[in-house]
Structure formats: structure tokens, C-alpha cells
């Protein structure tokens, strides 16, 4: 099957210029790095601006865009840049009443002064949740790989963690262990009807809390603190509750869907509920039957009272594997689902951010007719090459740790990742490292796609690194 698909659809041909393309990609990456006060601190979002409009912010340093940048720098042992980036973000952590503990979505130096964006300057004026949740994860990756435990124990890092935990773990009107956020609060930064508890945010919260625990344990090793012990107990319990909640309410297979469709509704009282969110069988979409097949499974996009979001989100599912939210058996079910639906998720430019797309009427109603999220474009079914390394790392990490549990499946997955890598190798340099791709198969460069997009370039370099250079660097993702 894998062979048939590659010949008829991807038509992947190895490139004899692999080394040259990788070398050029590294040169582009070096150009994205910027200095503040004479020191390299991170990458701009994109190298080239398609317009002279000075209001474009692609020249700013975005925390979410710098996630793969910092991970790549860690693999290259360029720890000083990572440390400077983490320290600057820490200095910019908000102390204002409404946003206390929030890390900036982006920052830029203007007239010698650092200016952070906490949502007050963004389109839609939405504060990013993912930027804050990624910071402890990146901090732990850096501390653990570099051995700079003094930085992890430092007062500034420990204070930053406590400010963030005060923000995400405070009492709310919601009784479940999830973090509620508005639409546009993470990588899906345009209206896509993802308000509530979107998968990516909840998985990031899980990784964030585990990283905070690891960093707090460093401090605890040096001195006993009753308050720190209490915070560790609370955070550990939250991680356990959140992981159980995601597996119970977000994980679906053909079998669980058949049960869900037959569950009772309108349940009230203290007895055990089989349908806690009062999901009516009519909301289960018909496309799920073929999508799931018999042995596939995935984490749905959102669980909301009466309105589960059954869309597949690539980043949230990939991170669930990397952070250990999904146990090994469930990870293999996810891999089977991707193999079964590879013509949708990989197609001509791996990989699609969200499936299925919203069609015209639904797009109008739920996105506010956002032209960037036109059907099969941007976040509405668009293809983002920057996502491949997340999924590729999840597959390779699983193969490294559990490859003998299903050798045939993992060989197919390794072949899929290799084909997808060659697909990007052959296309991205010709298409100027575009941000995203449009259309049902991701053939066309996105209508509003930026060229020489940093996370497209560095995502390709990470995939190259894990496939060709150092398999062992995958271990950093085990939090």
C-alpha cells in the first residue's frame, strides 16, 4: 500500500542535491537570527516581507515560532542563544493585574527598548495561551540537555514558574482539569470555532505542568519548602487528572464512537454519568466511520457541552505522543489512522493542520468569513510543512522506545516519514520555503503565504537532523 501510494500520489524521487539543499537551508536559518543588545536572542518569523507595510509583524520574535528554533539550537549545542531567549521572555513576563504570569506572544526592540505583545497589539486582541505554556517546556529541554541546572534553580526561573502556575491553576467556574481559552489563543490564531478547551492547549498544559514539576524538583533538592511541597502535590495531581480526562473524553476509536452513539442523554444527579457532556448522537459526523476504520484512533479537537469538535488537529495529536499523554498502544492506533488517511493528511505537502475543512456556509458562520481561512487554506484545511517534524519526531521516538511491539506498522510509518521528508526536500526550496499551502492536496503555495518562513526552514532542518544525524536527541522530548 505504501509503495502504491508513493508512486501514484506523492511521486517522491530522492534528490541528489540533499546535502546542498540542507546547507542552503542552514544559511537561510542563520539569516533569521537577530541580536538584541549585541547578543543573538532568537529568530524573526520570516525573512522576506511580501509588502512594505510596516505594520506587518513578521520581523518580531514570536515565542511560538521560536519553539522549533530553540529545539534546533539545542540539538546544535548553541545553548547561549537559548538561555538568552528564555531569560528575555522571563524579563517580559507580565506583572499587570489582568495578564499576570503571561509570557509575551512576541517581542521586538524599538529605539533600544523591548516591547512585548500580550494580545493588546494582535489581530483580534487575543492573548496567546500557547506562548506561556511552551516556555517551561523549552526551559526544561534547555536545562536537561545543557546541564545548566543552576539556571533552572535560579530565583528568576522559579518565580516565573510560580507566577505561571498561579495563572493556570487558580479556581474557576469550570470543574474539569482543563484550561479554558478563547478562539485564536494558540497556533490557530484566526477564528476557527475552537473556543473552550482545544486539544493543543490541553496537551501543552500537560507538558507545561510536567516541565514545571521537573524544574521545581531541582529547587526542592537544595532546600525544603512547605509551600513548594504543597505546590508540587497539587501540580502532580493536576497532571494526573488532566491526562485521565483527555484519554476519557478526547480519545475516540470506532468502538468508543459506537458506544457514544448509544449512550443515554439528559442525565442528572450524583450517580455515575455515561454521557457527562450530554452529547446527542446526531452530532456525530458520518465521515468518522471511514476515517477511523477499525483500528485507528485519535484525540478530537475539543470537548464542550453538547458540542464536541471531532476535527483532527495534527499538532495536538503529535504533541500528545511526544509528551506521553497517549500511551504506546494508543499512539500506534493514531499511526494507523494517519496511514489510513494519508491522502488527506500528507498529500502533496505534508502535513494538513486540520481535517476536515469548513465548507463555504460553515466557514462564513464560524470564522466570520475570514478570507485567510477560506476552505482548504491557512488553518481551515491548509497544509503546513512546519508540522511534519512534530509528527515525525513522535513516530521516531515511538520506534526508538517501542519499535518491537509492532514492527510492520513502524516500518510503514518510518517509510511514510521518509517519503514526506523527500517531498519537502524536493519542493520547499523551489517554493521559497513558503509558510503554508492551499487546496485539497496542498499543491498550491498559500494565497497569503509568507516566503522564507522561519519555522518552515527550521522544521525541515529538524526533520533532517532526526533522520540523518542524531537519533538520540529525540530523548529530550520525554518530559
Word description of this protein:
It comes from Prochlorococcus marinus (strain MIT 9301). This protein is an alpha+beta fold and 479 residues long. It has a single domain (2-48, 57-262, 275-477), classed as Glycosyltransferase (Alpha/alpha barrel), CATH 1.50.10. It is 48% helix and 9% strand. It is built from 18 helices and 11 strands. It has helices at residues 2-10, 18-32, 66-75, 79-91, 130-146, 149-153, 155-168, 199-222, 226-249, 254-261, 288-292, 314-322, 328-340, 342-345, 360-367, 388-402, 407-427, 454-469, and strands at residues 33-36, 39-43, 61-62, 106-110, 113-117, 251-253, 297-302, 309-313, 354-355, 437-438, 444-445. Helix 17 (407-427) crosses helix 18. Mean pLDDT is 91; it is low at 1-10.
Reconstruct the topology from this structure.
Elements: H1 2-10, H2 18-32, E1 33-36, E2 39-43, E3 61-62, H3 66-75, H4 79-91, E4 106-110, E5 113-117, H5 130-146, H6 149-153, H7 155-168, H8 199-222, H9 226-249, E6 251-253, H10 254-261, H11 288-292, E7 297-302, E8 309-313, H12 314-322, H13 328-340, H14 342-345, E9 354-355, H15 360-367, H16 388-402, H17 407-427, E10 437-438, E11 444-445, H18 454-469
Antiparallel strand pairs: 1-2, 3-4, 4-5, 6-7, 7-8, 8-9, 10-11
Helix pairs in contact: 2-18, 3-5, 3-18, 4-5, 5-8, 8-9, 8-12, 12-16, 13-17, 16-17, 16-18, 17-18
Amino acid at each position: 500500500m505504501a509503495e502504491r501510494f508513493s508512486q501514484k500520489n506523492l511521486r517522491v524521487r530522492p534528490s541528489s542535491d540533499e546535502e546542498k539543499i540542507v546547507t542552503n537551508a542552514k544559511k537561510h536559518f542563520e539569516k533569521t537570527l537577530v541580536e538584541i543588545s549585541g547578543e543573538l536572542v532568537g529568530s524573526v518569523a520570516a525573512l522576506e516581507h511580501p509588502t512594505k507595510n510596516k505594520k506587518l509583524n513578521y520581523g518580531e520574535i514570536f515565542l511560538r515560532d521560536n519553539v522549533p528554533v530553540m529545539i534546533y539550537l539545542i540539538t546544535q549545542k548553541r545553548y547561549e542563544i537559548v538561555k538568552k531567549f528564555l531569560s528575555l521572555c522571563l524579563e517580559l513576563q507580565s506583572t499587570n493585574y489582568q495578564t499576570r504570569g503571561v509570557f509575551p506572544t512576541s517581542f521586538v526592540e524599538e529605539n533600544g527598548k523591548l516591547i512585548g505583545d500580550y494580545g493588546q497589539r494582535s489581530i483580534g486582541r487575543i492573548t496567546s495561551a500557547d506562548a506561556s505554556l511552551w516556555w517551561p517546556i523549552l526551559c526544561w529541554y534547555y536545562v536537561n540537555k545543557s546541564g545548566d541546572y543552576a539556571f533552572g534553580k535560579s530565583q528568576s526561573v522559579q518565580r516565573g514558574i510560580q507566577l505561571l502556575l498561579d495563572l493556570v491553576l487558580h479556581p474557576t467556574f469550570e470543574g474539569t482539569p482543563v484550561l479554558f481559552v478563547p478562539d485564536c489563543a494558540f497556533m490557530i490564531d484566526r477564528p476557527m470555532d475552537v473556543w473552550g478547551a482545544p486539544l493543543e492547549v490541553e496537551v501543552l498544559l500537560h507538558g507545561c505542568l510536567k516541565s514545571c514539576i521537573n524544574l521545581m524538583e531541582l529547587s526542592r533538592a537544595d532546600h525544603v519548602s512547605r509551600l513548594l511541597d504543597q505546590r508540587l502535590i497539587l501540580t502532580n495531581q493536576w497532571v494526573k487528572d488532566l491526562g485521565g480526562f483527555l484519554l476519557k473524553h478526547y480519545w475516540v476509536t470506532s468502538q468508543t464512537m459506537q458506544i457514544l452513539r448509544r449512550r443515554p442523554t439528559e442525565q442528572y444527579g450524583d450517580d455515575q454519568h455515561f454521557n457527562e457532556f450530554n452529547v446527542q448522537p446526531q452530532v456525530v459526523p458520518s465521515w468518522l466511520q471511514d476515517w477511523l476504520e477499525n483500528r485507528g484512533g485519535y484525540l478530537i479537537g475539543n470537548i464542550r457541552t453538547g458540542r464536541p469538535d471531532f476535527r483532527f488537529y495534527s499538532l495536538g495529536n503529535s504533541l500528545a505522543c511526544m509528551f506521553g499523554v497517549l500511551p504506546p498502544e494508543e499512539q500506534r492506533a493514531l499511526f494507523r489512522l494517519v496511514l489510513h488517511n494519508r491522502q488527506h493528511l500528507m498529500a502533496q505537502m505534508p502535513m494538513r493542520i486540520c481535517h476536515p475543512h469548513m465548507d463555504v456556509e460553515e466557514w462564513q458562520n464560524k470564522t466570520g468569513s475570514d478570507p485567510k481561512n477560506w476552505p482548504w487554506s491557512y488553518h481551515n484545511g491548509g497544509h503546513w510543512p512546519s508540522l511534519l517534524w512534530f509528527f515525525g519526531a513522535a513516530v521516531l521516538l515511538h520506534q526508538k522506545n517501542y519499535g518491537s511491539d509492532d514492527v510492520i506498522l513502524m516500518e510503514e510509518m518510518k517509510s511514510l516519514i521518509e517519503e514526506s521528508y523527500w517531498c519537502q526536500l524536493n519542493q520547499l526550496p523551489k517554493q521559497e520555503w513558503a509558510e503554508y499551502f492551499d487546496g485539497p492536496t496542498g499543491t498550491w503555495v498559500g494565497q497569503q503565504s509568507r516566503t522564507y518562513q522561519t519555522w518552515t526552514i527550521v522544521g525541515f532542518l529538524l526533520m533532517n537532523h532526526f533522520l540523518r544525524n542524531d537519533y538520540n536527541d529525540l530523548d529530550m522530548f520525554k518530559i
